[in-house]
Amino acid sequence: MATPHISAQPGDFAPAVLMPGDPRRAERIAGQLMPDARKVSDVRGIVGYTGTHEGRPLSVMASGMGQPSLSIYATELFSQFGVERIIRVGTAGGLSPKIKVGDVIVATGAHTDSSMNQLRIPGVNFCAVADFRLAAAAYEASLPEQARVGGTVHLGTVMSRDHFYFTPEGQTEALARHGVLGVEMEAAALYGVAAEYDKQALAVLTVSDHLLDHSGDMSAAERETRFTDSLRLAVAAAHS
Ligand code: HPA
Questions:
Q1: Pairing state of beta strands 46-53 and 56-61?
Q2: What pLDDT digit, counting tens, does each position of 200-236 carry?
Q3: Among 54, 69, 77, 146, which residue's Cα sits nearest to residue 114?
Q4: For atom 3 of ligand 1, which residue has the closest CA?
Q5: What is the dihedral of CA 89, 92, 95, 98, to 10 degrees?
């Protein structure tokens, strides 16, 4: 039975779904990871693929940009398609001075200025946290690489913003002062939806630019290469 935004049938999705924002990236990831990938959904250009990676079932589905878009797909996947874990793979803007362009952030929690989670439980500032087991699996997978290249994978919180082009004055600096590692636009909602359905979620983010220092911003080509590093950690979490 298809849902309003997913044209697949029950059983078409694997229990673990990798979720980039960009549909073209979803297609590329599916091609890269799964020799037997087949397209299982394509509504509004938001594609989903399922196949096997190293002999284990895996799906990749795009989320579109922003918390409302991601919430629609995550909700339908968790509630109608038997999906048990969603690992967002995307980019983030670096915030903390200890973050460099090209680093990877395993987002253990997500602050937000969105009302999406606030609406869940009236009067409560919902605490949007990643599944600890998934975060631990991703971090563990990063350890050999960390030993080799030194500290390029960070565990910590991110800020899931609704605006891309508007920032209240002083917010960036205040977030950095509070140890927030990066800025993106989806993780808080993903963690909220996962909590609602008692499922697992994680965001593994490649730092594509830095909000306090634009000198080292990545080109589109570099973004793609560095993205492979975070993908490896996301797959480790998916298969954990
Ligand atoms: N803001 C929101 N999302 C992002 C950014 C940013 O600066 N950089 C990469 N993804």
A1: antiparallel
A2: 999 999 998 999 887 777 777 776 667 888 899 999 9
A3: 69
A4: 184
A5: 50
Determine if ligand 1 sits within 6 Å of the CB of residue 184. yes
Q: Which atom of ligand 1 is nearest to the CA of 93?
A: 8
**Over the range 46-67, which residues count as b (16 or more CB within 10 Å of their CB) and which as e?**
bbbbbbebeeeebbbbbbbebb
- The angle at the Cα of 44, spanning 40 to 45, to the nearest 5 degrees, equals 60
8 A C-beta contact, residue 205 and residue 107: yes
Q: Which of 166, 175, 185, 218 most suits a substitution to test ligand 1, by most atoms within 8 Å of the C-beta?
A: 185
Does the model's pTM come out above 0.90?
A: yes
Bridge partners of 18, per DSSP, are: 60, 87
Token look-up 């609602």 returns 196
Output the CA 214–ligand 1 centroid distance in Å.
Answer: 12
Strand partners, 57: 52
